[in-house]
Specification:
Layout: E1 2-5, H1 18-22, E2 29-35, E3 75-83, E4 86-94, H2 101-112
Antiparallel strand pairs: 1-2, 2-4, 3-4
Length: 120
């Protein structure tokens, strides 16, 4: 699990950052990278996890309906992929304000593009 934010993060924020998202302010961004355990329902390289690289988030992917916990002004996005044989999810939260959603999404995508997985 990896958390990244444009604000201070704390231990105990939860796997998908529910605590962190509760501290977000206008123009903040948050990302949680979570690796799932493989079982009969979660298979690397199949279904939701078919992508072999982290998908690039786009502004149109974000919606309040994608949030783990709905908060006014926040938009979320969840993207699935397989990295090095491990099924993963990126859970992203933004809180647009002065900066447009597309600007926040582009900045977040830039940060996520720097991810490297062990063995790459």
């Amino acid at each position: 699990m990896l958390h990244v934010g444009s604000f201070a993060l704390h231990d105990g924020d939860g796997d998908f950052g529910a605590g962190a998202a509760g501290r977000m302010r206008t123009d903040d961004m948050f990302a949680a990278l979570v690796e799932y355990r493989v079982d009969s329902k979660i298979r690397p390289g199949h279904g939701l996890f078919a992508a072999t690289r982290p998908p690039r988030p786009r502004a149109r992917d974000f919606s309040p309906l994608q949030l783990q916990v709905t908060r006014p002004g926040q938009l979320g996005c969840q993207l699935f992929f397989t990295a090095r044989g491990a099924p993963c999810s990126l859970y992203l939260v933004v809180q647009p304000g002065r900066r447009h959603l597309s600007d926040l999404t582009a900045k977040l995508a830039g940060v996520l593009a720097t991810l490297r997985f062990h063995g790459e």
